Queue: 4 jobs
Job 1
Amino acid sequence: MDVNLIPRPLLFLVLALLLFNACKPAAEDAATTHTPRPAVVTVETVVPQVLQDTISTHGTIEAQENVTLSVDFTAVVRAVNFRENQKVSAGQVLIEFRSEERELAVKEAEARVSEALARMNQTRELFDNRGALYARNAASLEEFRAAQTDFQSARAGYEQALVARSLARHQLTKTELVCPVDAAVTSKNVRVGQTALPGVPLVRLQYRKGKRVLCYVTEKDINALRVGGEASVTTPAVRGKTYSARVTSLGTEADPQTGNFQVELSITDADNLLRSGMTAGVLLEGLTYPRALVVPESALVDRNRKRLLFKVVDNKAVAVEPVPAATFSDTVPILEGIQAGDVVIVGGADQVRDGSPVIIAEPTE
């Protein structure tokens, strides 16, 4: 057929239909190609648990004859349960403290957390807004970086407020001064109604049957310890044996050269195997988190200079930017960002994006 005899409008219609049919499969293929495949992931349900922090350090064993006890907080004395020249036993409660002042400190710390959270949310909103404007060339790089700096500063302030609240809550649990060793009271410097101050001696004990360990901890760890707290001690000189110990003194000033704080422990040497000058490995009990929300370290992934974890909601991955505490071995306590009962991705998190579909793998036996 001579195409010149086909009317021009009909010719255009035929060409358009041919072009549409040729392009339709390619468009359908492209749409199919860009549909994300569900990632196969493993998950865990977040369950509150008791988490005991531990602090590892090294020290030196020394001979011990006297122990001076003080506290590392400020509190009013409620009761004194000993007298001079009295024999006292390890674990005996020597002094009881009032808690009203520290309850107020917890409330103030909680208020600072709320203020810091509000500021962080405000700066986050401004940062996101500036980022969107900068992507459209509607804001300068300087404006974007200034908003980023403000948000990072606000987030650091929020994390510090959370830590301060945890410490205030921990201080609230310090209602007693416990005798760390079997001893005799040689000096009593405390009375009911007195305000005990950090580092000020309250009682002096005479103890001739044991040894002491001097060690150092960082400024990050000193406030997680308490006088009377438990510890374990090992030494290469006595292989296979672990000694129980108690904290008898906490330094109130940092070493000017190292910036670390001295911690003194008493330990019982029933076998008389320890000698002055021996080195010791020390494991101290720190803060206790009674209802900690913990995830495996593998659940956290790095994305765009952010540390994220993913929850599973309606078979989709939902990104969360949590506020983690210090890492405990291969687990991380999460201070903010998740709740008990959340289902978090612990395997395959590096394969998902916010909003992408997931398939939960069946647990293996």
Note: The longest strand covers residues 49-63.
Job 2
Amino acid sequence: MSEEMSLLLPFESYEENAVNIGTQQKSADMARFIERVREDGLYLLDVNMTDSRIRMIAEFLNKYDPARIMVVSARQYGQRPARLFSEAIGANAAVGRFIPGSLTNPVLRSYVEPDILFVTDPAADQQALREAVNSGLPIVGIVDANNNLRNVDIALPANNKGRRSLALVYWLLAREVLKVRGKMTDEDWAASQDLEEWQSTF
């Protein structure tokens, strides 16, 4: 009970938005983040670990100039939350199809030189991930039960395929980043940023 009391949001909020609902496949890398297997074969992620990683990543991102943070999401349901997250913290976003060479080819108009890459799904965002690895960038990623962590430096275990889950994770992460900067309280954030708006696909 004391663990739940210290969560950023009530456990039910994570559950209602399916943040802890993983896939039916589990990678060896993700075993430590899995709480249990449900009767239908879905692996459930540990909400306490998700919650503590959100806090840790918020602190970590604030070590960087926001304009030098690059957030990518090829996944449809991650595109709106990733863009809103980027706008909230002042980062750059590349949503939808990632143009090959955007991190490695200075000739391209889409070329950028970030200091860190944040991926919504290491599998779906593998082009950006590969280029970031080649450029030596640190990589933070939202990772599901079936993800490989080989090139992810800091993993945020969560359902990275669901609309509601991705919206909640990005919404909460934006709030925590701004709280660390001393620019936002929980109440101010809830008043200014409607979670349902983040969950919309339009």
Note: The first strand starts at residue 34 and ends at 37.
Job 3
Amino acid sequence: MKLTFGLSCPSCGGRIDVEEGDHLAICPFCHTVSKIEGEDDVKTLAYALVVDEKKALEAAHKWFKHGFKARDLKEVGKIKEIYHVYLPFWRYTAKGLGVVCGYNYRTDSRGNTEKVYKEKEIMKDYDWSHIACDAGDIGIMHLRNYRGEVVPLPEDAPTFEVTTSKDDAVDMGVQEISKRIVKEAQIQNITFSKTFVVPRHFVLLYYPVWIIRYEYKDKMYFLTVDGVTGQVLSGRAPGDSVWQGLAIATGSTVGGVLVGLALPAMQYVDARAGLFLLIIGGIIFLGAYSFFRHGSEIVEGDIEKPYKGVDIPYLKGVLKWA
């Protein structure tokens, strides 16, 4: 999706509508030609801040009530600081082309497994973004929204300093898009792949975000709110001991029952059915134990979580094998 933004003509002050990727702007009123460029010949744009402080606080209080957070968080949590900042992101759009060859395994109705060879050609538009600064532990690494009013960056806008280079960003974008092309083929065992990334647009985009810091029982936490959509992007919150207790109790009960049924199923029904029950029961128990152990703090966004969820692709492979 292309971005369209408005500039003021340096001669007559008229509005000039310019699309992302354009290097020249022609005023429709006085026909003055202006060159568009940014730092290191990278165009710099920004989204307009739409969400005000009141709406950001409303989003925060709504977020306090959802999920497995402490049940009294909304009443006990105290907002200590709120401010908005424009975070810089590299945005790279390109057309991805690729050829991927390989094979998948297929099991027929008799239980026989065979290789199914596949060759897939990919041609698709891709959009990649990555934060261009060291934003600390605020949990925002990529753009989640590409819709909004695009304007030149306000002169007095609070921003984070750009700490990565254009060349590094382009390399990262090409590598990530190449991985997406190969993944798009949906081939389990790849024997050959060749990808091409044809660049279209590259911009440094500043995105407005509200950062809110709050206190809960003498401990500080934070969350971020999208300055355009009003959605919570990331945050840390205290967990609830009741949810932890329910998780371990339910997980132990359900997981234990399934594991207990696995051995009789292997012996009297079907070995694969028993193995299936054993795997599912073990996953449920381990998931419940992980939440019980690390659920004292809930994290959302691009933050490394103290416990990881189930690896769905890996689980599918195990269950298919079972």
Note: The first helix runs from residue 53 to 64.
Job 4
Amino acid sequence: MSSVLTFSLLTEVFVTLFVIMDPVGTIPLFLSLTRGRSPASVRRAAWQAVTVSFSVIVAFAFFGQQILHYLGISLPALQCAGGLLLLLVALELLTGKEEAPTAASDVNVALVPLGTPLLAGPGAIVATMVLSRRVDTVPDFVAVAAGVVLVHVSLWLAMRFSLPILRLLRDGGVVLVSRISGLLLSAIAVQLVADAVRAFIGGEG
């Protein structure tokens, strides 16, 4: 029974972060930000972006609670704010009005905006902090850690092989995946807000 619950937690972590961080939807943005660069530079940008994102996510998973305590912010408040932000992102995905960030030639786009806030944005940070609260045992920790690692492996694979994937899916396929991701993301956002409201009513906020 314990192994089933652990696998369920791993799956929840992976699916939640996969939808929020959207590896497939990142492909066209990654291609636009690395346009004109050498293949070696593109591969290096993929590694750097994933490393930055992973570092930010892990930092908030371990120290997010202390940061919130120092600022006097409760987790339900951040959870509600994150849910509202996710809802805005989901609406942009559903309506197709998301804007691609532009890159300056003298800026390492792998750090900003790819690593953060494109990958490790508010939604991913809040979701990771919420999921980290469910870690009570070593298997739970392994499940959450494995989910985070698998998502970042997916992100790296998507960016590393972005050109073949884009040729396979074509623009229409990427748009379809973005719409589906928007629908799932909106459901996650509503759930975050609902959980936050329940926490406030229960006196946890």
Note: Confidence is low (pLDDT under 50) at residues 102-106.
